[in-house]
Amino acid sequence: MADGREEEKREGQELQGAVGGEDVVDDPIMEQGAVVLRGYVIERINTEEPGRHVSSEDLGGRSSEQQDPHIKEVVEQMIKITDELNRNAELQRLINQVPDDCAGGIFMKVARSIFADGINWSRVVALCHLAYRLIYKAITSNNQENIRIIISWVLQVFREQLHPWFVQQEGWVGVIRGISRWRTVAVVASVVLVATFVYYRKTR
């Protein structure tokens, strides 16, 4: 138990450097990934709670960043796949059990488990969906610092685990090209997330 706590503490400390302000990134794929994540969070909130206004600035971004038509198209395709994920009642029950103060070390373990046996766009979207649920909890509890911390965790996963794969896909436009296959893997993504949350609960 002590070793696990020490590992979680170390991973949490490694994440702290990425927190704060607008994203400090110098890679187009990473920068676009941060903008896409924020756009995804905003659109999901607009869908689930239209009366709540959330802007890119609230999530650490820039006011005009969601105007790019390519970003809008990527986010639109991501919303389509998560409409399938949201139909999984067991997945939603497990997501709702994730505490607001989810530790960075645990988040990274869960992220690794999502991609343990492969990477595809459905799993990338599943990661963003997990982050969205945590960010939504932070928004509703008015915890601005947690919002930026969670975004920094996702960017670390993008950078450390997924970046070479993103390059192979020629960046985030790969989401648009792969849309024809998304519906066929939506159920698989749901199963992956359910298994991931079961793993999460066992490591708490």
Describe the structure.
- This protein has helices at about 1-15, 30-50, 70-85, 90-95, 105-115, 120-140, 145-170, 175, 180-204.
- The protein has about 200 residues and is mainly alpha-helical.
- Helix 2 packs across helix 6 and helix 5 packs parallel to helix 7.
- The longest helix has 25 residues, at about 145-170.
- Mean pLDDT is about 75; it is low at about 1-25.
What is Rg? 16 Å
Round the mean pLDDT to the nearest integer and report it: 76
Low-confidence stretches: 1-24
Number of strands: 0
The main sheet comes to: none
Tally of DSSP helical segments: 9
Q: Kindly state the percentage of residues in helix.
A: over 70%
Strand content bin: under 5%
Structural class: mainly alpha
**Euclidean distance between termini CA atoms:** 11 Å
The ordered H/E elements are HHHHHHHHH
Dominant shape:
globular
Task: Chart the SSEs and their pairings.
Blueprint lengths: L1 H14 L12 H21 L20 H17 L3 H7 L8 H11 L6 H20 L3 H25 L4 H5 L1 H25 L1
Helix pairs in contact: 1-5, 2-3, 2-6, 2-7, 3-6, 3-9, 4-9, 5-7, 5-9, 6-7, 6-9
